[in-house]
Write a structure and sequence with these properties.
The complex is a heterodimer of chains A (about 250) and B (about 400). Chain A is α+β, with helices and mostly antiparallel strands and about 250 residues long. Chain A contains 5 helices and 10 strands. Chain A has helices at about 105-110, 120-135, 135-150, 150-155, 165-185, and strands at about 30, 35-40, 55-65, 75-80, 190-195, 200-205, 210-215, 225, 225-230, 240-245. In chain A, the strands form 3 sheets. Chain A has a 4-stranded mixed beta sheet, with no helix packed on it. Chain A starts with about 30 loop residues before the first strand and ends in a 5-residue tail after the last strand. Chain B is an all-alpha fold and about 400 residues long. Chain B contains 14 helices and 4 strands. Chain B has helices spanning about 5-15, 60-65, 80, 100-110, 140-145, 145-150, 160-165, 235-240, 275-280, 285-295, 305-310, 315, 355-365, 385-390; strands spanning about 155, 205, 225, 255-260. In chain B, the strands form 2 sheets. In chain B, strands 1-4 form a two-stranded antiparallel ribbon. Chain B has a two-stranded antiparallel ribbon with strand order 2-3. The longest helix of chain B has 13 residues, at about 5-15. The radius of gyration of chain B is 25 Å and the shape is elongated. Classes of the chains: A alpha+beta (about 250), B mainly alpha (about 400). At the A-B interface, helix 2, helix 4, helix 5, strand 5 and strand 6 of A face helix 7, helix 8, helix 12 and helix 14 of B.
Chain lengths: ~250, ~400
């Protein structure tokens, strides 16, 4: 961090993803841009280290367009740009497709939350109420009560007896399968989760060009970010801090 | 229930005990291996005499069958082993006689006190069904003599990424995106500070007050050092229960319990930064907690320290999606989380503790780093520390 040492600001660069706008994306999710503000954290000018093939490190701060940290979100560090990896955007699952057979009460109940599966922890607190008002939950509860003869267990193990497996986890499973494929196609190096301040550290990867992307929109119709990160510090062991403002493309 | 079928032949055999003298080794299965934690005996040159008091899952014949062919789920006694408020259908007892008899009829009816009974029974008698505590519930077992002497032949497969995603809320309103399902656990510490997520499976462990008020001979470690991890099925079976849950279903034991390589048992950690004596001196008695302590690189680190408490788990545990309980290296907390960026303990200007200790150590190899370490502070600073400080 000392003045006089080599400035490293320029080594992490932005590749505005707007450049990637192309016909291939036509039916895909909106692309969002990234605005990096690099600040080196630990500076270690060491001439011979540059020659070594050491692993590098990078720390990112990710914000949304309102400058709010993207807290606890899953991202991927990719070898290829998400939008040039030929991902099959058309086959991305949609939550609504997994509601076959759901009662209107269940649909209404699920719509109040924004969860990928029935295992969303905030549901749990509402189960005691749901078993009275939502027919599917009532059935699951009665089933459990019959099997375990304990109200507590019938409630705690409610999802085990939930009659619509589709609604329970099918969306999550299809999304995961899609993501697994996408990760492979885009050459995912690591998947990471930001902390509550939108930060993440990576260490121990080969230097070179990388992309950061969420691959799958955080909410329906939301953007997919495609940020190029160039890590070519003179000393690859360097740790960087780079903030990215991830714009919201929908505005 | 099985008493009627078993008692009679047993008594008969007992009466004819004198006749049974020839030890036919190898009958009814392959040699059984010890599963004690101590070193295995060197393979004898001749065909080994089978020790039927020891059961091993690694025996080829035992590997042929599905886990559930021996382990009954739930056990008959599940409702008795835990108190009513925390009990749930579970595997809480040994496999029953049926699961042995199809191959081990011969061993079952050998002599007045057949050796094989001692795998499960504390008293070997045709009339007494008294058994050692079973490995589950793990707490009680770990405190028993048998539990102290033996180590598991399995390690647990718990993929954090899958569970994190399956429970994720699409758009977390308050930064509480990731949560794990509620699990009853030893010591609940209600902590209103951060909306926390991972705390459903991991809570801060506070060791019980020492029985006597005698002052500790060493300066006490900070309180609230460790986080717990699940020790049983209560954190899993609410989703993986067999009649309708997610795969692996509860009777697919091997979906979660992975045999350790080379027929080994789960190694007792030898201790890195702290050893067993250290743990004892500091008053840690819970075997699960001691194991965690011995696995640590930084034994001094306290989760419950005022400022640490305010930091998100994911800030320090940077690799949650790739955490793999089957690979300890993925569980490491990188030294960089101790400060680079937020500069708590790492930084050249102003000089932070890691930089300070590294400088002192490089100047004087006999210097001992004590801020974060106990034993490891005597060693050479590892590469991770030199990199983080730019040395």
């Amino acid at each position: 961090m000392r003045a006089g040492r080599r400035t490293l600001l320029l080594w992490a660069a932005l590749l505005s993803s707007t450049l990637l706008a192309s016909a291939a994306r036509a039916q895909g999710p909106p692309v969002a841009a990234c605005q990096p503000t690099p600040t080196p954290v630990v500076v270690k000018p060491d001439a011979n280290a540059a020659a070594t093939n050491d692993a590098g490190g990078i720390r990112v701060f990710l914000y949304d367009a309102e400058k709010k940290p993207l807290a606890r979100k899953r991202f991927y560090l990719l070898r290829r740009s998400a939008f040039s990896a030929g991902l099959d955007w058309a086959s991305m699952p949609k939550r609504a497709d997994f509601l076959q057979g759901a009662s209107p009460q269940l649909r209404e109940w699920l719509a109040r939350h924004d969860c990928d599966s029935l295992y969303c922890p905030e549901f749990e607190a509402e189960f005691p109420e749901a078993v009275k008002t939502v027919p599917e939950f009532k059935r699951a509860y009665d089933d459990g009560l019959r099997k375990y003869r304990s109200e507590k267990l019938a409630l705690k193990w409610l999802t085990v007896n939930f009659p619509l497996k589709n609604v329970r986890t099918e969306y999550y499973k299809r999304k995961k399968a899609w993501l697994d494929r996408a990760e492979q196609q885009a050459g995912a190096v690591v998947s990471f989760m930001t902390d509550d301040k939108g930060r993440a550290i990576f260490t121990g990867f080969q230097r070179g060009d990388y992309y950061i992307s969420n691959l799958f929109p955080f909410d329906e119709g939301g953007p997919v970010w495609d940020c190029k990160v160039m890590t070519l510090p003179p000393n690859p062991r360097q740790l960087w801090a780079v903030s990215y403002v991830l714009s919201n493309s929908r505005q | 229930m099985k008493r009627t079928t078993l008692t009679l032949p047993l008594l008969l055999v007992a009466a004819l005990a004198a006749v049974v003298c020839a030890r036919v080794s190898g009958a009814g299965g392959e040699p059984q291996r010890r599963r004690a934690t101590t070193q295995r005996r060197a393979a004898p040159a001749q065909r080994p005499r089978v020790d039927y008091t020891r059961f091993s899952h690694a025996t080829a014949a035992h590997r042929k069958d599905s886990c559930a062919s021996c382990h009954k789920n739930p056990s008959d006694n599940w409702a008795q082993v835990r108190d009513a408020s925390s009990s749930f259908p579970d595997i809480t007892d040994y496999p029953e006689h049926d699961s042995c008899l199809s191959c081990h009829r011969q061993q079952f009816f050998r002599g007045a006190r057949p050796a094989i009974c001692a795998v499960c029974h504390s008293v070997v008698s045709p009339r007494n069904g008294a058994r050692f505590p079973f490995a589950n519930p793990a707490d009680a077992f770990a405190r028993s003599e048998k539990g102290k002497a033996e180590a598991s032949e399995f390690s647990i497969n718990f993929p954090h990424d899958i569970h994190q995603d399956v429970m994720a809320r699409a758009d977390a309103p308050d930064g509480a995106g990731v949560r794990f399902v509620r699990a009853a656990f030893k010591q609940e510490t209600p902590k209103p500070s951060k909306p926390n997520s991972c705390s459903v499976c991991h809570v801060t462990y506070f060791k019980p007050a020492p029985p006597s008020a005698a002052p500790s001979p060493t300066p006490a470690l900070p309180a609230g050092l460790l986080k717990t991890t699940p020790t049983g099925h209560d954190s899993c079976f609410n989703c993986h229960w067999q009649d309708g849950g997610e795969k692996p279903l509860s009777n697919d034991c091997a979906g979660c319990h992975k045999p350790l390589p080379n027929n080994s048992t789960r190694p007792e950690p030898k201790g890195k930064d702290a050893d067993a004596q250290f743990a004892a001196r500091e008053g840690f008695t819970d075997p699960f907690v001691v194991r965690k302590l011995l696995r640590r690189d930084s034994v001094i680190f306290a989760h419950d320290e005022e400022r640490h408490r305010e930091i998100d788990c994911a800030t320090c545990h940077t690799r949650i999606p790739s955490l793999n309980t089957l690979d300890e290296t993925t569980l490491k907390v990188p030294i960089l989380s101790c400060g680079a960026g937020t500069s708590c303990h790492v930084g050249a200007k102003p000089k932070k503790i890691l930089n300070e200790e590294v400088d002192k150590k490089l100047a004087d190899p006999s210097f001992q780093c004590t801020k974060c370490h106990f034993n490891l502070g005597r060693e050479k600073p590892p590469k991770s520390h030199l990199d983080a400080t730019g040395k």
